[in-house]
Amino acid sequence: MTAQPVIPGPKGHFALGNMDAFNKDTLNFLLQLRQYGDVARFRFGPFPLLVVNDPDVARDVLVTHADQYYKNSLTKEIMAPAIGNGLFVSDGDFWKHQRKLIQPAFHSKRISAYGQIMSHYAADLGETWRDGEARAIDHDMTALTMRIIAKTLFDSDIAHETPEVGRVIREVLALIEESFRALVPTPYWIPTPHNRKMREAMKRLSAVIDGFIVERRASGEDKGDFLSLLLTAQDEESQIMTDAQVRNEAMTLFGAGHETTAVTLMWAWYLLSQNPEVETRLHDELSHVLAGRLPTVEDLPSLPYLEMVFKETMRLYPAAYIISRDANETVNLNGYTVKKGQTLFINVFGIHRDERFYADPDRFDPERFSAENEKKLPKYAYIPFGGGPRVCIGNSFSLMEARLLLATLAQRYSLSVAPGFKVVPERQFTLRPKFGLQMVIKAR
């Protein structure tokens, strides 16, 4: 009988494995794992985890054999109180059914209609900025993207009318991250202080979402928002989603639809502040194309450098820094046997900073994503939105939004990191600045 090759990886504590190193500095740990090869192994306590460090192997998981992998069971368990069996965590035939129902909501013509809302809301924020003041840009970007997703999802200015909704969303995300950091998360049915906080937060949030659903069902009005489409979407048997399914998908869009764009904008502002030559070139492009007016969706093809800035931002600081999967059957992965139920991570952060694909990988260089240079990249060496059939359904919406918001604000302002303020990336639910992002506003 042929012995199975052993997957290499770092040594760890006999009981805790590599848990301390992973939690202490997750990003550095992910970078260090690349030295063990295209597939590596480490332990989170007694639980073995595999890590994919290579684009071709990532493609095997995400595309070639996508049906052999399901969303990670721990992720499902932790996310269940917030999004139930929503699109982000569902699998199999149910996931395919829901994806098919929801996909039309992200048709290019439909999301393009939201462009004016995005630019105007960004301009509203710009009106509150004052030359020389220090601002918590992490709060500003989160509030702005939350206001936009509330309008495009529920046709409501909920972030202004009911600001506590934003606080509850952030509280839920923080509680979810707490659970991810635990060796064995406490089941939600056990009334721990953490679980009671989650239950109370979700009770408040669900009341708002359910109110929108009930009101819209009763009126039958199509307001052109995501909620209208979710309520009216039908499958081949003319079946519509239940209120519970609509709520789960609305919660998924509400949470993910603002968080990832907000953190990408934070990192874009930070990187521009550290690279004045890039900022100058971006300002020149914006001035030439827009000449001071608000940007529209139709302007975006004429702003290629703006898109390059965002692609490079998402390379260095991908909001989804890892992608987790469980094998739903015993599979062969790059010559290794992966047992059914085995958890693996795709090391997005590590692959994006691999010098095999990116010269001087820690340097911010939007030219990597010029039309000519982007073609030279292995396809799965750049996966900020994942890939394959489960590629992020909102990727076009998010990139459109980020470009319109930055174009609107960067025309009028240049931002610099507040004196003495330290910017440190940290693994939270997404990849965020650990201490926030205090920046000084300078009117252009």
The first-level CATH class name = Mainly Alpha
The number of distinct structural domains comes to 1
Cα-atom Rg, whole angstroms? Answer: 22 Å
Helix/strand/pairing category: alpha+beta
- In total, how many beta strands? 12
Specify the helix fraction band: 40-55%
Largest sheet: 5 strands, mixed
Helix/strand order: HHEEHEHHHHEHHHHHHHHEEEEHHHEEEE
Q: Find the CATH superfamily.
A: Cytochrome P450
Strand content: 5-15%
SS summary, helix count: 18
**What is the CA-CA span between the terminal residues?**
71 Å
CATH architecture: Orthogonal Bundle
**Mean of pLDDT:** 92
Outline the structure in words.
- The chain has about 450 residues and is α+β, with helices and mostly antiparallel strands.
- The chain has a single domain, classed as Cytochrome p450 (Orthogonal Bundle).
- It contains 18 helices and 12 strands.
- A 5-stranded mixed β-sheet has the order 1-2-8-5-3. Strands 4-12-9 form a 3-stranded antiparallel β-sheet.
- A hairpin with a 3-residue loop joins strand 10 (about 425) and strand 11 (about 430-435).
- Helix 4 packs antiparallel against helix 10 and helix 13 (about 245-275) packs across helix 15 (about 305-315).
Descriptive keywords:
single chain; 444 residues; alpha+beta; Cytochrome p450; five-stranded mixed sheet; three-stranded antiparallel sheet; globular
